Amino acid sequence: MTTTEAAVLHAQRDLRVETVELGAPGPGEVLVEIGAGGICGSDLHYFLDGGFGTIRVRQPIILGHEVAGTVAELGSGVTGLKPGDRVAVNPSNPCGTCEYCARGEPQHCLDMRFYGSAMRMPHIQGGFRRRLVCAARQCVKVGDIVSIGEAAMSEPLAVALHAVAQAGDITGKRMLITGFGPIGGVVLLAAKHAGAGEATVTEVVDEPLAFARRLGAAAAVNVAANRDALAAEERDKGRFDLAFECSGNPRALAQAIACVRPRGTIVQVGVGGSFDVPMNVVVAKELRLVGSFRFHPEFEIAAGLIARREIDVRPLITATRPLAEAEAAFALAADRRAAMKVQLSF
Prior knowledge:
Blueprint: E1 2-11, E2 14-22, E3 29-38, H1 41-49, E4 51-52, E5 55-56, E6 61-62, E7 66-74, E8 86-89, H2 99-102, E9 131-135, E10 139-141, H3 148-151, H4 154-166, E11 175-178, H5 182-193, E12 199-203, H6 207-214, E13 219-222, H7 231-234, E14 240-245, H8 250-259, E15 260-268, H9 279-284, E16 288-291, H10 298-307, E17 317-322, H11 326-333, E18 341-345
Parallel strand pairs: 11-12, 11-14, 12-13, 14-15, 15-16, 17-18
Antiparallel strand pairs: 1-2, 1-6, 3-7, 3-9, 3-18, 4-5, 7-8, 8-10
Helix pairs in contact: 4-5, 4-10
């Protein structure tokens, strides 16, 4: 048994860089030297609020699930990987045996062990550490073209690819994206890669809208400053073919319902609480309202798209801070006016 440094959350706003135990890789496992890790919205909820909804931090937890690094050591029986391989690490670790895993839907695994999650006790420890032992099957090689920081964007891009897949064929379709944080950003990139038509992005602060325009949005509007900004899109029962709701805000979903044409699709990506949904409008317009949760096969696809730069995620990475400055990095990530995706460097 040896040790490694990690970013450990003890309670709300109590994030410490401290030494934790690290075992050797066992059969089917590898030791990865983590190079970069992205701070996600769920990490921020744990840090700022001590959890979200009924999920609370009840014991010290290593945060982080958007990580990539370099294979340093192999456990017995590992094939297809070697020391020196640069990999994106899939934080999803389903059991493989429950009814949902057997049905090919492991994102709904009944015994899921997802990195950096306080959903179960003991908590599942995350990837914000200098060294990590994981199953070899969680590692996807990314080659030598892209940075480790780009590779660490594989998880959020996988979320976006899964959301786009939920929408069906989106070729040439006009789309609305409500909420433009890091997930809204990768949804725009993934949808454009899938052949979507022009995109309109909405936000309640101005700064993220500049990112949207740089990433190819045809229109980017502040709906807090101008509540009637999409009035023209609501005419004749709606003008958008589809919408991706990425904010988790009930008002954003209501606006999507108003703006999407009859028989259009709304994919709910953002996580919020209970929504007051105008079901009479959903029914009358025959809308398809579908949720999107995590990913599974999309992780390997996302890592490949990033590795070949078929999708360029570099514009979304706005700051990188060393592990020693983890608390400051979280504070920066929480400031939506100052940063898009903030990563830790290990």
